[in-house]
UniProtKB/TrEMBL annotation, chain A:
This is Amino acid/amide ABC transporter ATP-binding protein 2, HAAT family. Residues 2-235 form the ABC transporter domain. PANTHER family: BRANCHED-CHAIN AMINO ACID TRANSPORT SYSTEM,ATP-BINDING PROTEIN, HIGH-AFFINITY BRANCHED-CHAIN AMINO ACID TRANSPORT ATP-BINDING PROTEIN LIVF. SUPFAM superfamilies: P-loop containing nucleoside triphosphate hydrolases. It comes from Desulfacinum infernum DSM 9756. GO terms for molecular function: ATP binding; ATP hydrolysis activity; branched-chain amino acid transmembrane transporter activity.
UniProtKB/TrEMBL annotation, chain B:
One of its GO terms (molecular function) is branched-chain amino acid transmembrane transporter activity. It is a multi-pass membrane protein. One of its GO terms (cellular component) is plasma membrane. The chain crosses the membrane at residues 35-57, 64-83, 89-107, 161-181, 248-274, 286-307. InterPro entries: ABC_transp_permease, LivM-like. It comes from the Bacteria. It is found in: Cell membrane. Keywords: Cell membrane, Membrane, Transmembrane, Transmembrane helix. It holds the Pfam family BPD_transp_2. This is Amino acid/amide ABC transporter membrane protein 2, HAAT family.
C-alpha cells in the first residue's frame, strides 16, 4: 500500500534520513521503533507532506506522492496523528473534530455524521464535546487526536508516539483502540519509543538508528531479537506488558 | 449573548459615546477628544495588526507604510484628481491589499519571522518613496490642500463629529474582526496558532491563511490612513516611518495580542502617553517606549487586558464563593 524507497530528507541542516526504505501492506500495523533522533518523526513528516524529501520516493497505492503538499496527501487518504498530540487547546472538542475534517469542509452532513459516530464510539469525548480540548486529560487528548485524524476518513494512519506521556493503563487503552482500527480495515504505521507495546500489536516492525533502517522483521521476531531486547526493551519494563 | 459578556460591552459603548461630553466642560482636558480621534484612527491599524500577531503569529513592521499608502492615495486622488474621498478610500485600500499580497506571499511561504524582515525592508522603501517622489507626494515638505470629509452632504468639521465618525469605523472593524475570528477562517487561524504542524497535516493551507490576515491588516491600516489624511489635511512622510510601525506593534503588545480589546486598550493608552505625557522627554521618548515594552514583557507578558481580566475574576472569586 505504501512503499518508501531510499528516502533522504534534511531537517534544517541535519541529514535526518539517509536512504530509508520500507513498505506497509494493506491492513497491517507496522511499528517503527528507535531512539530519540533516529529519524522516525522526520520519516512520517516526509510521508505526510510536512517535509520535502531531497531524494528517493514515496509510493502510495502505486502513485508517487513524494513532495506533495499536506493537503494533497490527506486527500489521498493518509492522516497523521502528530507527536505530542498537538490538539487545538483553545478550541472545543467538537471544533477540534471539525478541523480534522478540514478537507471535507463543504460536506457538512458527512462531517456531522462522522462526528456523531466518533462521539458514539468515544463516550468520554461526547461528555466533554463542548469543553475546551486543553482541559482534557492526556489520554482523552490522545483519543481526541486520533478521532480528529479519523474525521478526514483516512485509510492509512500515521501515528507518531501515541503513548508519549501517558500512564501505563491509558497506554493500554490507546493501543487497544489502535488494534481495533486495524481490525476495521485501516492500515497503520506506528512510531513508538515504547518498543515492547508497539511490537506486541504490530504485524511487522522496523528499527531505525541515526537515519537508517537497521533491522526489520515480524513483530514477534523483533521482540525476541537479542539486539532489540538489549537496546530498546531493557529489563524492568516487563511488568505491565506481560501482566 | 449573555449578560456577563454584554454588560462590559454596553458600559464601553456608553462611556465612549459620552466621552466628548464628559471632557468638554474642562479646559485642561477638553482636547482629549482630539487625542481620541487619533487613538481611534490608530486603533484601526492595531486591530488588524493584533489579528496578524495574536492569531497568525506574525509580526509586520510595515503597518505605518500601509497607513501611508492609504493616506497618500486619498490625498493624491482627492487633492489632485478631485475624486470623492469615499471613492478614494477603497481605492487606497485596494492598492494596500495588492501590495500586501505581493510582499506577503513569498515571505509567508517561508517559516519563521521572514515577514518581519520583509516588511521591515518594505516599510523603509515606502518611506523613501514618499520622501523622494516630490512631484507626487511633495517630498519631505509634505502635502497640503487636502479636502475634508462629508457624510451625507454634511461636512465633518468639529472634533466631536470626527470622534464619532472615527469610532464608528473602529466599532465596525471590531465587529467585523470578531466575526472573522469566530468564523471558520478564524477557527482555522486559532488552530494554526495552537498547533501549526497539526493544522497543516489536516490540509489547512497555513500560508494562504496568513497572507489573508496580512492583507486584511493592510486594508485596515490603509483605511486608517485615509481617515487620518482627511482629519489633519496635511501630510509629511515622517508620520509613516519605521518608528511608527514599531509603535503600532508596541500598542498591540502592551494591550495584549490575543484580544481585540487589547489592541484598543493598548492603542488608547500609548496614544495618550505619546501625545500628552511624553513631551517632557523630547528625544528620549524612544527610551521610554523601550522601557514600557520591557516592563510589559517582564511583568505582564500577556498584555494589560489579560492582566486586568485576571485581577477582576480573582476578585469576583474571592467575593463569591464557588457554587460547585
Amino acid at each position: 500500500m505504501l512503499t518508501v524507497r531510499s528516502l533522504h530528507t534534511y531537517y534544517g541542516n541535519i541529514h535526518a534520513l539517509k536512504g530509508v526504505s520500507l513498505h506497509v501492506r494493506s491492513g497491517e500495523i507496522v511499528a517503527l521503533i528507535g531512539a530519540n533522533g533516529a529519524g522516525k518523526t522526520t520519516l512520517v513528516h516526509s510521508i505526510a507532506g510536512l517535509l520535502r524529501p531531497q531524494k528517493g520516493s514515496i509510493l502510495y497505492k502505486e502513485e508517487d506522492i513524494t513532495g506533495l503538499a499536506p493537503e494533497a496527501v490527506v486527500e489521498r487518504g493518509i492522516a497523521l496523528v502528530p507527536e505530542g498530540r498537538q490538539i487545538f487547546a483553545t478550541l472545543s472538542v467538537e471544533a477540534n473534530l471539525e478541523m480534522g475534517a478540514f478537507i471535507h469542509r463543504n460536506r457538512r452532513d458527512q462531517v456531522r455524521r462522522d462526528m456523531d459516530a466518533l462521539l458514539e464510539r468515544f463516550p468520554i469525548l461526547r461528555e466533554r464535546r463542548r469543553q475546551l480540548a486543553g482541559t482534557l486529560s492526556g489520554g482523552e487528548q490522545q483519543m481526541l487526536a486520533i478521532s480528529r485524524a479519523l474525521m478526514a476518513r483516512p485509510e492509512f494512519l500515521l501515528l507518531d508516539e501515541p503513548s508519549m506521556g501517558l500512564a501505563p493503563l491509558v497506554i493500554r487503552e490507546i493501543f487497544a483502540i489502535i488494534r481495533r482500527l486495524r481490525d476495521e480495515g485501516r492500515t497503520i504505521l506506528l512510531i513508538e519509543q515504547n518498543a515492547r507495546a508497539a511490537l506486541q500489536i504490530a504485524d511487522r516492525g522496523y528499527v531505525m538508528e541515526t537515519g537508517k533502517v537497521v533491522l526489520q522483521g515480524e513483530g514477534r521476531e523483533l521482540l525476541a531479537h537479542r539486539e532489540v531486547q538489549r537496546a530498546y526493551l531493557g529489563k524492568g519494563s516487563k511488568e505491565i506488558w506481560d501482566a | 449573548m449573555n449578560l456577563r459578556k454584554f454588560a462590559p460591552v454596553a458600559a464601553f459603548v456608553a462611556f465612549m459615546a459620552a466621552f466628548p461630553w464628559m471632557v468638554a466642560p474642562f479646559d485642561a482636558i477638553s482636547h482629549y477628544t482630539d487625542v481620541m480621534v487619533f487613538a481611534g484612527i490608530f486603533c484601526l491599524v492595531t486591530i488588524g495588526l493584533s489579528l496578524l500577531m495574536g492569531f497568525a503569529g506574525q509580526i509586520s513592521l510595515a503597518q505605518a507604510a500601509f497607513f501611508g499608502i492609504g493616506a497618500y492615495a486619498s490625498a493624491i486622488l482627492t487633492g489632485r484628481f478631485g475624486w470623492n474621498p469615499w471613492a478614494a478610500m477603497p481605492a487606497g485600500a485596494a492598492a494596500a491589499a495588492a501590495v500586501a499580497w505581493i510582499v506577503g506571499v513569498p515571505a509567508l511561504r517561508l517559516k519563521g519571522h521572514y515577514l518581519a524582515m520583509a516588511t521591515l525592508g518594505f516599510g523603509v522603501i515606502v518611506h523613501i518613496v514618499l520622501n523622494e517622489e516630490v512631484e507626487w507626494t511633495g517630498g519631505p515638505s509634505g502635502m497640503v490642500d487636502i479636502p475634508g470629509l462629508s457624510v451625507a452632504g454634511v461636512r465633518v468639521l468639529s472634533e466631536t463629529a470626527w470622534y464619532y465618525l472615527v469610532w464608528t469605523f473602529v466599532a465596525a472593524a471590531l465587529i467585523f474582526s470578531y466575526h472573522v475570528l469566530h468564523s471558520r477562517v478564524g477557527r482555522a487561524l486559532r488552530a494554526i496558532h495552537e498547533a501549526e504542524k497539526a493544522a497543516e497535516a489536516m490540509g489547512v493551507p497555513v500560508a494562504s491563511y496568513k497572507v489573508q490576515v496580512f492583507v486584511y491588516s493592510a486594508v485596515l491600516a490603509s483605511l486608517a490612513g485615509s481617515l487620518y489624511t482627511h482629519y489633519v489635511t496635511f501630510l509629511t512622510p515622517s508620520s509613516f516611518d519605521l518608528m511608527w510601525s514599531v509603535r503600532f506593534v508596541l500598542m498591540v503588545v502592551v494591550g495584549g495580542m490575543q484580544s481585540l480589546w487589547g489592541a484598543v486598550l493598548g492603542t488608547v493608552f500609548l496614544t495618550f502617553v505619546g501625545n500628552e505625557w511624553l513631551h517632557v522627554f523630547a528625544d528620549f521618548e524612544v527610551l521610554v517606549y523601550g522601557g514600557i515594552l520591557l516592563a510589559v514583557a517582564l511583568l505582564v507578558p500577556q498584555g494589560l487586558v489579560v492582566w486586568m481580566q485576571e485581577k477582576l475574576s480573582r476578585r469576583r472569586e474571592t467575593l463569591l464563593p464557588r457554587s460547585e
